[in-house]
Amino acid sequence: MSVFIRLLGGIWVATLVIMVGFTLFQIDEQQQQLTHELESRATLVGEGLKEAIEPVVARGSTTGIERMLKKFGRPYPGDSRSTTNSRA
C-alpha cells in the first residue's frame, strides 16, 4: 500500500508541475499577443491623429487642434472601460 501511495503522489506532483508550467506558458503568450495588439492599435490611432491634425496645424487654428484632441481622446461609445463612472 505504501508503494501505491508514493506512486500516486509522484504522479499527482508531476501532473501538477506540468499544469503549472503550461499555465505560465499560456500567460506569457497571451501577454505578448495583447502587447503586440496594443502597439498596433496605438500606431493606427497615432497615424489617424497625424493625418487629421496636419491640415489644422497648417492653418494655425488652436481651437481646431483642441477639438481634434478631444475627439481622439474620448472613449469609444459603449466602451465599458471608460474612465467615467456612471454610478457615482
Largest sheet: none
Strand segment tally: 0
Helical residues, percent? over 70%
Ends: how far apart?
62 Å
The helix/strand class is: mainly alpha
Give me the Rg, rounded: 26 Å
Global mean pLDDT: 85
Unreliable spans are none
Polypeptide structure, described:
The chain has helices spanning 2-59, 62-73. The model has no long low-confidence stretch (mean pLDDT 85). By secondary structure, the chain is mainly α. Helix 1 runs antiparallel to helix 2. It has one domain. The protein contains two helices and no strands.
Question: What's the layout of helices and strands?
Answer:
Layout: H1 2-59, H2 62-73
Record keyword descriptors for this entry.
rod-shaped, mainly alpha, single chain, 88 residues
Short description:
With about 90 residues, this protein is an all-alpha fold.
